[in-house]
Amino acid sequence: MVRSILTMADRGETGVFVPTIVVVEMVYLSERLKINPDVLKRTFELLEDPQGSYRPVPLDLAVPRSAQRVPRSEVPDLPDRVIAATALILGLPVLTVDGKLRAFRKIETIW
Known about the structure:
The protein is built from six helices and four strands.
């Protein structure tokens, strides 16, 4: 399912909103050699394309307000709470394999 959504986005048939905390995590993983640096480079290219289907979602004050609706007992990892809070604000599903996010019933997840 996720692959088909990303393929549709690559063809300009749908949009994908990417919380900037995801990109920060990608920088960290790239530095630790957990992901290929080319993946990070391509991610920046996709998010910086003004005509593209991938849109960065900044971490503004609405996100920490929304994070209060994401209990730490249910989603303990801070970046995951930011992602969940962003999804709540946008009213959009999250593309994730993360078990804690998938178990959090206030958001829809797709994997």
